[in-house]
Amino acid sequence: MVVHNGIFENYLDLKRELADEGHIFNSQTDAECIPHLIESYMNNGCSLEEATRAAASRIDGANAVVVLSRKEPDKIVSFKLGNAGGIVIGYGESEMLLASDIAALLPHVRTVAYLAVGEMATVTRKRVQYTRIDGSAVKKSTARVSYGALTATKGEYKHFMLKEIHEQPDAVLDTLRGRVQFDPPGITLPDFPFSDDRIRSFNRAIIIGMGTSLHAGMVGRMWIESLAGLACEVDNSSEFRYRDAVLDENTLVISISQSGETADTLGAMDLAKSRGARQLTLCNYEGTQSTRVADGVLPIRAGLEISVAGTKTFVCSLVTLYALAAYLGVKRGYLSEERLANIVQELLHLPEMIGQLLSDQSQYERLALKYGRRANFLFLGRGKNYPLAMEGALKLKEISYIHAEGYPAGEMKHGPISLIDRKMPVVALVPQDDLYEKMLSNVNEVKARRGSVVAVAAEGDKHISEKADEVIWIPKASANITPILNAIPMQLLAYYIAVERGCDVDQPRNLAKSVTVE
Ligand code: AGP
């Protein structure tokens, strides 16, 4: 029996060869070819391990495979080719476990190891032997997982997503722990891999990621520009990996992947490495592939996240990026002591402000009843909150299956405004920053076309309550920190609408928690 994740690129050639040998196929899948290939070697006298090794060496493409055979029932053999799918091995008491994701192992084990690309594991009840596919030995170190088994249960919550949303104040505290000093104000990143000279040599940064991690990167870019004075671009990993990016050793590539196993981000990191860029990765899990490829890791410390929709990993990625931008600003001599002191002061209150946003959720239930049956939504934001509009739209579409688009509000007049009518709810992010007046006029434009506006605005903003149909209030905060706070209403709105529509919140259709194939 074979469990397969990936794409077996040359399977048609091998299938023909195996069919000629007499193997009978019952499907058109590439996966079915793998057990036949292994069986063919076993028929010629190979052990399960030898046959799997021989088969692995003939498979092209990125594939993660687990193999069992009735002929050797006390053994599981697994291998990983290219960046497809994680294989995590859990060390239990008198038992060994294999899974594609650490979440499945957590109720049973705390010590794990990850298979790297080109590696094989032969697992028996009490031990595991690691080799490369060419047969050479591998010395593997294990990682101790600090999240308790309890975190893999829903507890009092109806869904993991809601539980994970509620965990955000504590998760943010963990992210900040040991990184922010209040007296005197300072940011330290003990995990930071580059010397001060190296930091000063960087002439640009490029942030890469997918989905929610990309949206975190879009905000991170603006912080790096404004707090560190470093030119910064942001790109979707799946685009970056196939374009002719110009990189050198003075380019800092920052990848964001909570899972550390997203195939496109790993592909983009491989490209960056081959072109000599220096690499930093933000990740939630120690020992995953992205942490092995990068020169250094900034753990986001969100704790285990099970729901497919990323929530606390998004917020913790944002907080880590904010701290990183301030750190780079200090090291580059760009951030004044006064600005740093303000940043630190506000970070001190961040968990409390997030807690405040979570304290009463009745408004979201009401909004879900009012708007949950609409077919389309628009999300609008500007500046650092434009990526939050994208994130709000992504959260809503992935778990409630409502079509939603996130736009920089300035784009409205260039097309999307023609969509506005009385059936269109528009979620407008209207923090009191230097783009406030511009956002207000976007709200006016929507109202003039009879759209409904759900504004997300700072407490005490009287203008907005006169204009919008609904207002979700966020605590007053600096412009820099509003994207972190605005993440919470985006999550709760999507969550309650999905519940109202009876959707499978934690496991939306067609989606996987980590996308390990491109
Ligand atoms: C998040 O809600 C999504 N499920 C998805 O966009 C995700 O953020 C993306 O696949 C990237 O995952 P990563 O952070 O593990 O690389």
Describe it.
With 518 residues, this protein is of the alpha/beta class. Helices cover 39% and strands 20% of the residues. The chain is built from 18 helices and 21 strands. The strands form 5 sheets. A 5-stranded antiparallel beta sheet has the order 1-2-3-7-8, with helices on one face. It has a 5-stranded parallel beta sheet with strand order 13-12-14-15-16, sandwiched between helices. Helix 6 (168-176) packs antiparallel against helix 13 (337-358) and helix 8 (211-228) packs antiparallel against helix 15 (386-400). It is globular and about 80 Å long. It starts with a strand and ends in an 18-residue tail after the last helix. The model has no long low-confidence stretch (mean pLDDT 94). 2-deoxy-2-amino glucitol-6-phosphate (AGP) is lined by residues 210-213, 257-259, 262, 265, 308-310, 398, 511, 514-515.
- The number of strands is 21
Task: Name the shape in a single word.
Answer: globular
* Beta strand %: 15-25%
- Cα Rg: 25 Å
Catalytic activity: D-fructose 6-phosphate + L-glutamine = D-glucosamine 6-phosphate + L-glutamate
Keywords: Aminotransferase, Glutamine amidotransferase, Repeat, Transferase
Domain Glutamine amidotransferase type-2: 1-126
EC number: 2.6.1.16
